[in-house]
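Tokens as discussed.
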């Protein structure tokens, strides 16, 4: 076994030069121009620094252009502030064990080296890094929840107290593109708002950080079990990226049954988009379930994601969409013979937590996918014995889930966007000794679906859920008889519950002031205005009212406001409801992204076959007219429709 052993360990806390703090409180330069000095006692050094502006985490950590992260002290300031926050959250005691992993994007390997040294210098005893440095976000959550000193472990036995995850999720990677860091707490869940706000405040007050001087680089490709002793009390261990996550999936699904189904006419095409999820798809779909290598595309992680935008939607997963016999709007390409296509198409994003689901010539919206999984939970061993104790969706997601939950008598929650809100519900009993809502499924319209097996959304879990549903639907099918496909399952669902037409318009990279003007106009004219004075531009679309979504957490009582602006409509002559939601996304690294979510309910089965963008075009035009999108932003069309 390979060791890099530090000989001695001591730290001296240094005072920064007086002029480093001479500027008024709250006024910070992008980077201090001071020549910082540092002193060391053996390996651990304390480096004076000054606060850097703009380090407030969004809904999924802090995301910036990679060149920002590469600036002097940037990673160090953020990680030191993060560790200090984690210590406060741990009752003032230094963490004993932490996971450090990333999605493999550009700068992942170098940032891991920096972070490991800061963790060691602060006294974290055990730093676990996956072989290769790459791990999907749900796999990190599984390690936190399951991994013991011996490596294995059941859910809830994990000894890691947190995880530092290097990802900008579905955002592009490479020089000039995005990098991000988020933190997962001791149950494997994303850090809550209390944690991230405390972290942000610490970034405004930081005066120094600790690191290990002249530490040799860790070989991220070293054999599993290799240890690097960075200080006498802190060591890095290279761990198996797959073991704990695979155990989590096997606790949810019948792998023997899925393996049998996979050899009985089932076929899949999985697009890893050159992200972290690709290597996990290789391990699960090919090595565990025996599916052919030809089932995979773009499953080798690359630092720039092969120059693609690793967001599994109709626009950016265009190659998969085409191979599944679909047009860019999600409708079927009539020139393609659906019988020649894979039964199931799926894609992951950069860090493996999002998913796209499609059948042969048939696209499934994320909201419909979640509703279908809920309605077919008996097909999934994780839920079959006990049923579901709770389901949840983000507010912008369609109400398709609500309709199923009501029919099935399952408690249903509507939360703000951000997986951390689902984490509280899943951990209600575990963390707060409250009501137990597990087994539990949840999801967001932005192609995120998951359950309580981890505390993150999980793209591969969604794929196996759909495999299980298809397997169950095809029980008893005779040899030579046509298999039940994704389209059959979804259209039967619509016939039973009605269809919630749904799509999203993204206006990316909008000037921040213009984006805020759009939101202010909606508040002033519609939320706080007089609905009766709103003139309709379409006789069949009547404006009803507008609200701004806020949320009181049923578990801890915390309140979250300004989570989206909702315009409600009534459609003529049916009287069916429709709505349009406007949000500013918190997952970008530059400018602002305005997201407009469109939803309308349709009972008439003769209209269910229309593609969603076509069915929703009139509603979109009316909403864009009301909010003066083009006039305010200068944008004639959205960047993405999905």
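Sequence:
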């Amino acid at each position: 076994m390979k060791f890099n052993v530090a000989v001695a360990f001591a730290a001296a806390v240094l005072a920064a030069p007086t002029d480093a703090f001479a500027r008024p409180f709250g006024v910070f330069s992008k980077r201090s121009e001071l020549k910082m000095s540092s002193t060391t006692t053996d390996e651990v050094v304390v480096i004076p620094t000054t606060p850097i502006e703009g380090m407030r985490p969004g809904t999924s950590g802090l995301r910036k252009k990679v060149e920002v992260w590469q600036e002097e002290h940037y990673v160090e300031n953020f990680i030191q502030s993060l560790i200090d926050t984690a210590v406060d959250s741990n009752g003032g005691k230094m963490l004993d064990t932490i996971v450090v992993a990333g999605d493999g994007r550009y700068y992942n390997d170098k940032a891991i080296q920096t972070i490991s040294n800061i963790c060691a210098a602060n006294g974290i005893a055990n730093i676990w890094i996956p072989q290769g440095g790459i791990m999907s976000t749900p796999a990190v959550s599984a390690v936190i929840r399951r991994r013991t000193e011996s490596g294995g472990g059941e859910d809830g036995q994990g000894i890691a107290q947190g995880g530092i995850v290097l990802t900008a999720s579905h955002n592009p990677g490479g020089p000039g593109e995005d990098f991000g860091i988020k933190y997962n707490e001791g149950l494997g869940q994303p850090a809550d708002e209390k944690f991230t706000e405390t972290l942000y405040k610490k970034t405004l007050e930081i005066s120094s950080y600790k690191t290990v001087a002249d530490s040799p680089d860790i070989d991220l490709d070293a054999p599993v079990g290799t240890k690097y002793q960075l200080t006498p009390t802190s060591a890095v261990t290279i761990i198996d990226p797959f073991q704990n996550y695979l155990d989590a999936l096997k606790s949810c699904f019948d792998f023997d049954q899925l393996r049998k189904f996979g050899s009985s006419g089932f076929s899949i095409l999985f697009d890893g988009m050159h992200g972290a999820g690709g290597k996990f798809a290789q391990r699960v779909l090919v090595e565990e379930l025996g599916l052919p290598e030809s089932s995979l595309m773009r499953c080798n992680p690359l630092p720039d994601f092969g120059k693609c935008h690793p967001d599994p939607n109709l626009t950016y997963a265009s190659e998969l969409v085409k191979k599944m016999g679909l047009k860019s709007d999600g409708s079927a390409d009539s020139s393609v013979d659906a019988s020649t296509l894979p039964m199931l198409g799926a894609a992951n994003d950069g860090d493996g937590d999002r998913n796209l689901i499609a059948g042969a010539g048939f696209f499934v919206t994320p909201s419909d996918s979640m509703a279908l999984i809920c309605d077919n939970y008996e097909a999934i061993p994780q839920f079959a014995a006990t049923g579901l104790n709770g389901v949840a969706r983000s507010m912008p997601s369609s109400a398709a889930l609500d309709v199923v939950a009501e029919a099935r008598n399952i408690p249903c929650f509507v939360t703000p966007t951000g997986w951390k809100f689902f984490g509280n519900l899943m951990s209600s009993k575990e963390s707060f000794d409250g009501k137990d809502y597990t087994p539990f499924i949840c999801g967001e319209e932005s192609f995120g679906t998951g359950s309580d097996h981890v505390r993150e959304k999980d793209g591969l879990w969604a794929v196996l859920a759909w495999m299980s549903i298809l397997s169950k639907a095809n029980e008893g099918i005779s040899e030579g008889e046509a298999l039940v496909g994704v389209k059959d399952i979804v259209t039967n669902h619509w016939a039973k519950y009605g269809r919630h037409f749904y799509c999203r318009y993204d206006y990316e990279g909008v000037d921040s002031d213009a984006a805020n003007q759009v939101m202010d106009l909606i508040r002033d004219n519609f939320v706080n205005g007089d609905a009766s004075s709103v003139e309709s531009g379409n006789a069949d679309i009547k404006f009803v009212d507008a609200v701004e979504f806020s949320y009181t957490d049923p578990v801890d009582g915390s309140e979250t406001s300004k989570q989206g602006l909702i315009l409600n409509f009534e459609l003529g002559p049916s009287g069916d409801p429709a709505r349009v939601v406007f949000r500013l996304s918190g997952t970008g690294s530059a400018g602002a992204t305005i997201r407009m979510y469109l939803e309308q309910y349709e009972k008439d089965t003769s209209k269910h076959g229309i593609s969603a963008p076509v069915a929703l075009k009139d509603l979109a035009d009316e909403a864009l007219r009301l909010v003066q999108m083009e006039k305010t932003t200068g944008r004639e069309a959205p960047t993405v429709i999905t």
